[in-house]
Amino acid sequence: MDNTVFIVDDDASVRDSLGLLLGLRGYRTSLFADAAGFLGALRADWQGCLIVDIRMPGMNGLELQRELQSRGCALPVVIITGHGDVSSAREAFRADAIDFLEKPLDEAKLIKAIDESFRRQSVSLSTRQQQQAFSRRLDELTPREHEVMELVIAGRHNREIAAALGISPRTVEVHKARMMAKLDADNVPQLVRICLESGAS
Amino acid sequence: MRDQDNTLQHLPNQLSALAWTLAFIGLYVALDWASYVSPLHQLNVTPWNPAPALGLLFVIRRGGRATAALLLAVIASEILVRQVPGGLIVTVWLGVVLTTGYLVIALLLKRYFPDSGLFTSRRTLLPWSLIIILGSLANGLLFVSQLLVSGLLPRSDWGDAVMRFWIGDGVGIFVTMPLLWWLQDAAHRQAFGAVILRWETLAYSALTVLTLWIAFVPGAEANFRYFYVLFLPLVWAASRQGLAGAIFCVATLQFGMLLGGLLHDSPDISLFELQTRAFLLALVGFLIGTAVDEQRRSAAELRQSLRLAAAGEMAGALAHELNQPLTALAAYASACRQLLERGADDVQFREAIGKMTGEADRAANVVRRLRDFFRTGATQLEKIALTELVATASSPFVSQASAAAVDFRVGTIPAATINGDRLQLEVVLRNLLANAFEAVAEVQAKPRRVSFNAFVDEGCRLVIEVVDNGPGLTEALSEQVFEPFRSSKSSGLGLGLAISRAITEAHGGTLTANLSGQGHFRLVLPIEAQTARRKSSHG
């Protein structure tokens, strides 16, 4: 699915005008009058960014942001508000908001925030894909290969690994070569980097 | 030529100053003549001497250059009222002595009370009294010593003479100067009149006459023990009309007591004894009057700051509302630029521009509401028919009710009239209804209900109840909702209950939240007595 700008604002005119403007600038838009409507329609494969007003009847914008986080939804969020105070801005950024914009909105800042959202989403998408690929490959390792990998990352030499696992250094070398091949790593430093980036231990 | 022009230009000013001086001298002599009763040895020592009060005020207003006029007035009085006792030279010398004394008192008053020469609070009443009393005593000692030197007074009488001069001048100034101060020019007279020209003044003045009669007629047989009743009208006047009322009542009492003393001419009580009582009355009256004024001033300040707080809250709420149309306007304008750049057709343009006009109107409405609120900064009272008020306030909610599936019922509205500010009361009613509608919006399981009822209770007060079947308030929340900046609302009028309560209290009413497991607000307003009667005769 393409990137879409989702706008949640209880004010019909604000919604309509932003929809018109962003539509003319070539963005796909989807408009919602409140948080409940958005959550009701939310799909896991939605991509793009969410622009949400803080003050709304029912669930407010910050609550919606937290709700999305707890659901594991990675849609980047831009908060807009009529009266920005420090505490709500802080709350928004702590929950990883892309930007916190004050009404009336500055067009350039809004566009920048949307593009930043899209960029950050694609970055997070590619790292996530890498992570998924790595963990799939990690699953292919045998228990013994896994043990060898952990000791290699810990900086042990083949002889030390052999002593620790009670096998010959020659066998360690075989396990290590298979493990490196399965994980698609050319040398030890690269292996360490891949493991660190993916967060695997 | 030029000099002549200048002289001609200044001539009206000089003439006017001369006219004022002559008027002052004439008034001074007239006051002295009128108060020249039971003098000591045909001298300027009388039980009540109000003329110096006029002299002091004249010097305070005009400054040191009025000294000559005061001297002239004092000497003219001696000549016209007392036919020059002891020859012209002695009279002029005594005039110089007296004028010097008055000048010192006037300068002291001007120095310590630079604004007006009169006390305005309880704190300043004491120094003011001390200047008058001690100044009069010093002046008395000086004047009587000169009388002794000039041989106009027997040596044996000097103590009595000092006492009489002290009381006559001291009480005269003490009682009369505040009254003359209020009468000194058009602005002061208008302010004084605004307080005094009421039926109530007539009522306590009648009581003054009655208590004077009690003090002098039955009181004479009881050794003048009934003077304390004179405090009754004084306390009435001072507590209801503040210092202005006290000053007026004290002047009336002083005049009445002197008249009573003269008519009665009883050996049991001298005019000087009466004057000491008058002084005590004046002191108590001024104390109560200034206390009442101070209390009223602080109450007014509190009301003003409450109003400012309410206005601040309203401005905050309206700023938020102003932001919505401004956001839309800016976005539509940007959209128009996009349309222009891509050469869009007329229809799209027309549509976008039409929407912009709509948003501009919306913003203008918000501004108008803010302006209306500030216009009502001074509550404008008018007689409002309750039925009209309710119809205007509830009409937007009737259409909203059908849209939001709310069963909205307005009960029978009594034919009462409220004395209040139409706009502010509308704000209160709309706010209560908006709250109720917002509360029932959360109701899903049962039909949504909002009811509006009004009736007149036994105490001739109008009771308005707005009840909804929403979740209602908890005890902790019921007081909190009236505090500013507690609103949990996102949009709508957003005025908060704080402002509604401030408005209600400014109208002498109350606004409370009832804890009944549902939304229940109770607004009580005073209504006009005759409409309450009319209502009961209607059934």
Beta strand count of chain B: 7
Principal-axis shape of chain B: elongated
* Total strand segments of chain A: 5
How would you name the oligomeric state of the polypeptide chains in this document? heterodimer
| Alpha-beta content class of chain B | alpha+beta
Rounded Rg of chain A = 24 Å
Strand content of chain B: 5-15%
Biggest beta sheet summary of chain B: 5 strands, mixed
Mass-distribution shape of chain A: elongated
Computed CA radius of gyration of chain B, to the nearest angstrom = 35 Å
Unreliable runs of chain B, pLDDT <50, ≥5 residues?
1-5, 484-495, 531-539
What is the structure about, briefly put?
The complex is a heterodimer of chains A (201) and B (539). By secondary structure, chain A is of the alpha/beta class.
Report what the structure shows.
The complex is a heterodimer of chains A (201) and B (539). With 201 residues, chain A is of the alpha/beta class. Chain A contains nine helices and five strands. Chain A has a five-stranded parallel sheet, sandwiched between helices. In chain A, strand 3 (47-53), helix 3 and strand 4 form a beta-alpha-beta unit. Chain A starts with a strand and ends with a helix. Chain B is of the alpha+beta class. Chain B has 16 helices and seven strands. Chain B has helices spanning 2-34, 51-62, 67-82, 88-112, 122-149, 158-183, 186-196, 199-221, 231-264, 271-341, 346-375, 386-403, 422-441, 475-480, 496-506, 529-538; strands at residues 382-385, 406-410, 417-420, 448-456, 461-468, 510-513, 519-526. Chain B has a five-stranded mixed sheet with strand order 2-4-5-7-6. In chain B, strands 1-3 form a two-stranded antiparallel ribbon. In chain B, helix 4 packs antiparallel against helix 5 (122-149) and helix 13 runs antiparallel to helix 15 (496-506). The longest helix of chain B has 71 residues, at 271-341. Classes of the chains: A alpha/beta (201), B alpha+beta (539).
